[in-house]
Amino acid sequence: MNPPAAFVLWTGDTISGKQPNKPDIMREQYKEFLGIAATAGVPVFNAPGNHEMNDKENCPSKKMSKLYEENMSQTYGAFTYGNSRFISINSEHIPEDSKCPASTDEKNEAPGAITAKTLRLLEEDLDANQDKAHVVIFMHHPVEPYKEKDGLDSKSVKRLKKLLKNYENVSYVVSGHEHMYYNSQPGANGIENPPPPSRTDPMQPPYYLVSGGGGAPLKGDEDTPGHFFHYLVFNVNGNTISPTLIKVDSCDPCDENDKCHNGQE
User: Fold this and answer.
1) Which of 1, 108, 123, 231 is 20 to 30 A distant from 97 in Cα terms?
2) CB 31 within 8 A of CB 74
3) Do residues 226 and 182 make contact, with C-beta atoms less than 8 angstroms apart?
C-alpha cells in the first residue's frame, strides 16, 4: 500500500494448532507465522482464534492458551493510535450450559463465547476511552455471522450488544472464523462495502462485519455471497472513519476446479 498501513488487525487463526501435547510443533507454527508477519513492515495485532486456543477436540485448552501467551501475547489486549482505540477480544471459551467435547457423532464445531471477566475488561476499557473518536473491536467468532452456527453463543451476543449500546463511539466489530466477507447491515446483501458510521444517530449500533478472506479455503461455493479473498482498509481522518473492501484476485488452494489449478492465470 502507498502510503503504507499503520498496522494490521488480524481476526485469528494464525496457526494450524490442535496439538497441545506437542508444544514443539506449536512453537514452530508460531515461529513460521511470526516470520511471515514480520515481512509486513508494520505491527500486526492478532485476536486469538480457535486454531490458537482450542485443542484437537475443538475445546478451549489451558495448554493452548499458555502456548499462545508464551509465543504471541495476552489473549485480551488494546491500544490507542491517534484518536482511536482498538480492542482485541478472546472469543474462544465454552458457552454456558455446554459440554466440550460435544456428545455427538457430528463434527464438533469450535465453541464461541465471551466470559463475564472479558466483558468487565471491555466495559472498563470503553469507560476509560469515551473521549476517543472511534473504537474498533476485533475478535474471531462473529457477533452476526453468515451462518448462525459459526457465531458466538446467544448469551454472549445478547450481553455484548447490550454493553455496546452504551457507547456511541464504537464504530465497528470485525470478526473472522467464517472464510468469507459478510456485512450484516440490513439491505447490504451481505457483500456491500462497509458504510461509515452515522454520528447523527446516537442510537445507531456498531456495524458487525465478518472478514475471514485472508487465505484459508473459502466458505461455500462461488454462488455464496462474500466468497472471495479480501481485506479491509480503514481510513481515519478526524471524526470520520471510512472502511474500504479490497478484493484479492487469487484462487482457492484447496479447490482443484479453480481456474488457477487449470494452468490459467
Assistant:
1) 123
2) no
3) yes
**Residue 226: all three cell numbers together:** 462474500
Which H or E run contains 115? none
Question: What pLDDT is stored for residue 262 in this prediction?
Answer: 41
Q: Residue 42: which CATH number?
A: 3.30.750.180
Cα-based distances in Å from 114 to 13, 60, 111, 155, 195: 17, 12, 10, 9, 26
In a domain, 89, yes or no: yes
For the record, the C-alpha cell of 237 comes out as 481522518
Q: Is 230 helix (H, G, I), strand (E, B) or coil?
A: strand
Q: In this predicted structure, what is the pLDDT of residue 264?
A: 37
Q: How many CA atoms lie within 13 A of 146 on its CB side?
A: 23
Does residue 3 fall inside a structural domain? Answer: no
* Strand ranges (E), the chain: 8-10, 44-46, 77-81, 84-88, 134-138, 170-175, 181-183, 207-211, 230-237, 240-247
**Average pLDDT of the segment spanning 95-108:** 67
Query: Which residues form the domain of 34?
Result: 8-262
Domain count of the fold of the chain: 1
Is residue 2 situated within a structural domain?
A: no
The per-residue pLDDT for range 105-155, each reduced to its tens digit, is 555 666 799 999 999 999 999 999 999 999 999 999 999 999 999 999 999
User: Does residue 47 lie within any of the structural domains?
Assistant: yes
